[in-house]
Here is the input.
Amino acid sequence: MSMRPLGVDGAWVFEPKVFPDSRGSFHEWFHDAPFREATGQSLALAQANYSVSRRGTLRGVHFADVPPSQAKYVKCVRGAVFDVLVDIRVGSPTFGRWEAVVLDDRDHRAVYISEGLGHAFMALTDDATVVYLCSEGYAPGREHGINPLDAELGIEWPAGLEPLLSEKDEAAPTLAEARRRGMLPTYEECCGLYAKLRA
Here is the structure.
């Protein structure tokens, strides 16, 4: 098993070793030691979420105010999703960059998305089931979104799927609009938060 950093600072993919046999398979989908070694901190757990989505469902791009924001450790336990993280931290060297990882019930990868990053996913199968561990609980007043179909952001969602969005996600501002409104966290405040969490 290993935690590999992604191209956006503050995001990792966890690639477990899966042990199959005639009965099925076994794997550890979270292990604190490699997590701490990669991120420099332990995973704070305040809430665990479970979502089931029909094929084409597009959820996100979601984020929360910093501090405290909300870090997420995300895994697909049934079917498959196209999981995306977006650097929305104003002043970051990779501001506006997105990266995607396919999460499924075959390879059993998981992703860790630090506080201050945006998160979204599209269901590639019916009944795609995603579980995620969150460092903070849901707080409606601190939660925000960016339109996942923002042309300037340019996320390359899988072809051949008609995106199914909630009314809230469909009405979300573009990244540029969110920046103009002062909704986005800054890279500086996120780095300060990361330093506190690792202390």
Observations:
- The first helix runs from residue 32 to 39.
- The chain has a mean pLDDT of 96.
- The first strand starts at residue 2 and ends at 5.
- The chain has four helices and 13 strands.
